[in-house]
Design brief:
Elements: H1 4-20, H2 28-40, H3 53-63, H4 77-90, E1 95-99, E2 110-114, H5 122-127, E3 133-144, E4 147-157, E5 160-167, E6 182-188
Antiparallel strand pairs: 1-6, 2-3, 2-6, 3-4, 4-5
């Protein structure tokens, strides 16, 4: 069942995409919005050349109504993923991370993967709070002529806000990939 929180999160991510996907981070309007992502979360704005993808995720999750106690708003994906993995282990909290091979991604979940050609796996993420990675919000789920898929929206993707297609297998689990492989899904139970 899609909750009111998930609907709001998806709407916020879609609004950000619709407003800014034609702009680059160095364009005035998107640059002002990136500053807002940082400052609304209580961080000082370091400039658009600092990675802002985790800040984008954190901002969307906060604006949808999550609290700092529910989600670790942070400029690094690995930090909030580590906390979500601990929540899954302890079966606490509303954002819980599981290996991507084990659960089906749904609306409002985060898909977390490697960046920069790295090959970290879930076991590594369970024990580390600092590594190069990326996450994006699932905003659509469907089936087309090629099979099952989800669409995600992420920030700082090619210096803007972008949508990406993630293919799923017949069991609706993410199909692995060689370059920047997937690590986990943060399941949104809020």
């Amino acid at each position: 069942m899609v909750t009111a929180y998930v609907k709001k999160l998806v709407t916020i991510a879609e609004e950000q995409y619709n407003s800014y996907h034609f702009e680059s981070e160095s364009d005035v309007e998107l640059s002002k919005q990136i500053r807002k992502y940082w400052t609304d979360l209580g961080f000082s704005f370091p400039g658009v050349t600092t990675a802002w993808s985790a800040i984008f995720i954190s901002w969307c999750i906060k604006m949808a109504g999550a609290t700092q106690g529910e989600f670790l708003f942070n400029p690094a994906h690995a930090q909030f993923v580590y906390v979500a993995i601990q929540h899954a282990i302890k079966q606490t909290g509303v954002f819980r991370a599981y290996p991507y091979q084990e659960i089906e991604p749904n609306l409002g979940d985060l898909i977390h993967h490697n960046r920069g050609g790295k090959h970290y796996d879930f076991e590594f993420a369970k024990h580390n709070k600092t590594y190069e990675s990326h996450s994006a919000i699932v905003v659509e789920k469907g089936t087309d002529v090629q099979g099952h898929y989800v669409l995600t929206i992420g920030g700082n993707e090619s210096d803007s806000i972008r949508k990406k297609l993630v293919r799923l297998d017949d069991q609706k689990k993410i199909i692995s990939r060689e370059i920047n492989p997937y690590i986990c899904i943060i399941q949104n139970q809020k």
